[in-house]
Amino acid sequence: MKIPAAFLALCASASAFSTQRSGVAKTTALSSVFDDYVGAVDYRGKKFEFDPLNLSESYSPFVGWFRESELRHGRTAMLAVMGFITTDFFRIPGDMYSFDAIPKTVDAHDSLLKTGPMYQLLLWIGLFDIVITAPAVQAMGNGDREPGDFGWVWFGPEGKEAMDKKRESELLNGRLAMIACGGIATQSIVNGHGFPYV
């Protein structure tokens, strides 16, 4: 009984990799969402248009929101990675933040949730969202601003081409940081070590 069941499962899974032929011809769009936004490159600078679920076509009014979310999560992850690494070596003053009170960085969340500072962090992030993010997202929906652009470009390069290159770098670094943040948290929990997490 096991052998026929295994054979049927093997055949069914193999059919997933076969090509499907249908009588309906596929059409290609003249313009793509990747033409409208910077960042359709991989780490080598080659063209990379990754949208396996076709969310940009299915939910085209939300593409700006998707990019805004990607940038925000990438920026937050870059800060989180630096925070994870830095707090393995340095701590801010105060007994509740000391190495004696919190020996491992990964335990800081639970410890500080019990003592109160995490609630204050939640309050400040919520205030930032209400005062800055909500009007910015509204302006983005109206077409008054680009996703992720808060107008803080004092250190940005001059010229559109140089700025687009910086924006691509920010996206790639943010994508890497999102993966790194998950990897750091997992390694810290699994093996109980701080930096370099091995």
UniProtKB/TrEMBL annotation:
Keywords: Chlorophyll, Chloroplast, Chromophore, Light-harvesting polypeptide, Photosynthesis, Plastid, Signal
Gene Ontology molecular function: any one: chlorophyll binding
Coiled-coil ranges from the UniProt annotation: none
Signal peptide span: 1-16
Residue positions binding chlorophyll a: 56, 70, 73, 112, 170, 173, 175, 187
GO cellular component terms attached to this protein's record: chloroplast; light-harvesting complex; membrane
Positions annotated to bind chlorophyll b: 75
GO BP term, pick one: photosynthesis, light harvesting
Cellular localisation: Plastid, Chloroplast
SUPFAM superfamilies: Chlorophyll a-b binding protein
Listed Pfam families: Chloroa_b-bind
UniProt entry tagged with the keyword Cell membrane: no
Keyword Isomerase: no
Protein purpose: The light-harvesting complex (LHC) functions as a light receptor, it captures and delivers excitation energy to photosystems with which it is closely associated. Energy is transferred from the carotenoid and chlorophyll C (or B) to chlorophyll A and the photosynthetic reaction centers where it is used to synthesize ATP and reducing power.
UniProt record similarity statement: Belongs to the fucoxanthin chlorophyll protein family.
Name of this chain's protein: Plastid light harvesting protein
Lineage per the UniProt record: Eukaryota, Sar, Stramenopiles, Ochrophyta, Bacillariophyta
